[in-house]
Amino acid sequence: MGQNDNVISCKNVWKVFGDHPERLTGHLKPETTSEELRATGHVAAVRNVSLDIARGEMLVVMGLSGSGKSTLIRCLARLIDITDGAITVEGRDLGTMTETELIDLRRRKMGMVFQSFGLLPHRTALENVAFPLEMRGQDRISRIARASEMLNLVGLGGREGYFPRELSGGQQQRVGIARSLAVEPDIWFLDEPFSALDPLIRREMQDEFLRLKGMLAKTIVFITHDFDEALRLADRIAIMKDGAIEQIDTPERIVMAPATPYVAKFTSAVDRARVVHAGALALAVEGRAIDGPALPAIETLHALARRILQDDRALIPVAGRDGVVTGLIDRAAALDLLLGPAA
Amino acid sequence: MNPRLSHPALMLLGLALLLCLGRFALPEALIRLPEPLILPFADWINAVFAFLRDDLGLMAVTRAFSGAVEFCLDVTANLLYGKSRWPRLGPIPWVVIAATMGMAGYALAGWRLALLSAGTFVWIAVMGQWKWAMETLSVIMVAAPFSVALGLSAGTLAWRFRGVERVMNPILNIAQSLPHFAYMIPVVVFIGVGPKAGAIVTIIFSVPPMIRMTLLGLRAVPPEIIESGKMSGTTKWQLMRSVRIPAARTELLIGINQVIMQSLAMVVLASFIGMPGLGQKLLNLLQSLKIGLSVEIGITIVLLAVVLDRLSKAWAMKQPAHLEPGATWAARNRLLLIWLGLCAAGFALAAAHPYFAGVERKQALSLAVPIDAGVDGFIRLVTPLTDWLRWFLITWVLIPLRDGFLWLPFSAVLAFIAALGWLVGGVRSALICLAFILPIALSGWWDRAMITVYTVTVAVTIALLIGLPLGLWAAARPNRARRFLLLCDTLQTFPSFIYLIPVVMLFGVNDVAVVAAVMVFATVPILRFTIEGLCGVPPETIEAAEMSGAGRAQLLWHVKLPLALPTLMIGANQSIMFALFMVIIAAFIGTQDLGQEMQRALSSTDVGKGLVLGLAVAFMGLMADHLLTGWAARRRKAAG
Ligand SMILES: Nc1ncnc2c1ncn2[C@@H]1O[C@H](COP(=O)(O)OP(=O)(O)O)[C@@H](O)[C@H]1O
Ligand SMILES: [Mg+2]
Known about the structure:
The structure holds two protein chains of two kinds. Chain A is built from 13 helices and 13 strands. By secondary structure, chain A is an alpha/beta fold. In chain A, strands 6-7-8-3-9-10 form a six-stranded mixed beta sheet, with helices on both faces. The longest helix of chain A has 17 residues, at 199-215. Chain A is globular. Chain B has three domains: 42-91 and 134-307, MetI-like (MetI-like fold, Orthogonal Bundle), CATH 1.10.3720.10; 94-126 and 331-362, no CATH class; 445-638, MetI-like (MetI-like fold). Chain B is 81% helix and 0% strand. The radius of gyration of chain B is 27 Å and the shape is globular. The two termini of chain B are 15 Å apart. Residues 17, 43, 45, 63, 65-71 of chain A line the site of adenosine-5'-diphosphate (ADP). Chain A: It holds the Pfam family ABC_tran.
């Protein structure tokens, strides 16, 4: 994966709602405050966002409700036009695309799963999934075959003829997921796809999602406000506040090295032991003695808790995938992280 | 209320009072608008129409349109009652039509509607009213699709272009408060009289609700559905056809329901411009006071109204349901097969015995004789009461009130109206109200308008006196409330013409009958909204009041009624609208108000006069609407 192989990149993107947002185009600067905007009757739902998403990456966007997550994702799909800045998708400027180019992009490259499903109420599950294929003119037989395949993939085989209102929330959401996958998109947007589900089904759906993600290599932007969900799924996490991105980084760094007090507060309730890998905690060897078995660097401390507790060495070696020792963990520090600082 | 705000209103009220008290000293010009100030609106409108017709060649356009309508009318007329026109297949035997309607009822809502629907058509046939009913239905079958298509296109345009909506909105407001007759006169000018004109006036009259429901439906589609459509790569046209319109299905079908009901109401009234069918029959029978036969026709119209309403509502409410996977073709098309079977059986039956093809006049049953006997007996019983009531009302209530309304100087009325407007919405509302009432004074129809106002005032007051207590009583028990609401629903589907039958039966043809008809018609919305308002009070509020020890009467007076008031005002508003419509319809049993003049304009095809009168009625309705909705909105805001 090359460093410059970015599928989506945003440069200073603004989305302002209000009386006359078009007048603000070109006048928005990073230091423009909400008060200045409010004085003219505007709200910035997305403010000065710059980010790059690499091919095959899964970016999770987090933030309180109203922080602009949905607006950002809608800008990325150009469901709404941005007020200022630029978004490129696969190297092409989204803002200058014509209607036809945009339709083509959505037909071939993009899929989206909506928070409240957005299923067409008058169509069966099968017809809903086949809808994007129908719109791009695929013939009936092949689109029905493809749609059934997708429904089977999300575990809804046998429910093809059901109408959305005859399905449970979780099932409807799976129809939405199947529909978004029907055109084999390279870029997959998911807006709080599991938020309407109860915890049990949600867990089930996350497992299913991880399975799908493993099967289909896609660039994914995933919105959630559930940190555990983010930790299970993310390559990188972006934390948004009042439309701006506070920090965009790996889960570990978000937790261990918060860029702002807000991020620190946001992540304060997270169980660090579930996030931090042994490798991240390791100190350089610096000529200290290494003996005995080593801990795997890619496991989280949580997974290694029993072994660390039972190990009585003050410094425990850590080894990478290839078995080569890369560093040493200070056992006391690890125990502090696992059990909380000693009183 | 803000004292500074109410100050000018109080002054205006004082002015009105002063003008009344000092009437004897007033110059004539303040009592009635002097002749030279009266503007010849009618002449202007006539000039515009003459220009449209003669110079703009609109005649050619209307000819082409009415040609298309006439062709469709001939087709349905041939199929339904065998008029000898292309395609020369009809008439379809009545058993087949009854079976088809029954099947439609079954498919949409199950057995009960199937029985009601088939039963209605059996009744029509057996009572020997088949031809009249089919004449009426053949027009609805043509007019409704035209209205739906027009309404859908206009509604879509208004949804797409804000400018169109902005222009269309006030036009729709006026159109929906114009009395039926105001639509007829221009049509008579352009098309003449007869079924074709009846169909066209029906089409025009029933378009507005479809436009509104289209606009509403397209607006109400959840944004996520639209976005998911866009993400599926739809073009604009695909989005409209495959996402927006299907997602607005329920609203559009409710629009169709309203179109059908409006068509029925209009088609019945179109008998005034030579439309044959049930309406004309009823009109003739009523005019010759043949009560038994009118009741028979009335029952048919009512049954048809209920069936058409239930069928189209069931269609709107019907949700798609999945079929078991692997169902056979026969299982998937079960209803179609049953229907085909029934039709085949119907045709066979008709071939076997002519009774099942068409019921001859001499074979028809009639309830007229027993009904007449029953009614006569009943009338004899109540005559002393109705006679006394009639005498009392005419001498002691109606005539004095009417004279009182006519006595009022127009300047005092203007000041009073402006004061009301000011109370409700400040200077803006006062000006709006004046803008509605001043043209009536300027048109020179002031006296007639005051008679209309007097009839409506009396009728709505009585309607309030009956509807409110009845509503209070009905709302006391949930079950009772539900039954009453169902009754109101059903009564509201009846074409207004029907309400004339019982009052003519009881009071004959005079002022009291008019007031009674208007009153009955206006009571329904009051009753309905009283119940809805009272039942809509949140239970937590009631529980909270009960916890603070409110008794039943206190609960009613201090909690329920104030909270139900805004809803009640909607009821009063609708009641006034209904009353205005009814007053004009009732004109043919003898009034001296705008309605009577409108009938004259209709018979002399005077477009200008007809429209001026119609607009006068519409303006009164719109003014009442402005005052009442403004007031209800204030109350609601005050209640939080
Ligand atoms: N169509 C709109 N018009 C005006 N304001 C909007 C619109 N959509 C979103 N907003 C505002 O933008 C902000 C961000 O909203 P949203 O992106 O939906 O937040 P999130 O998805 O993080 O909950 C909110 O303050 C919201 O009120
Ligand atoms: Mg959101």
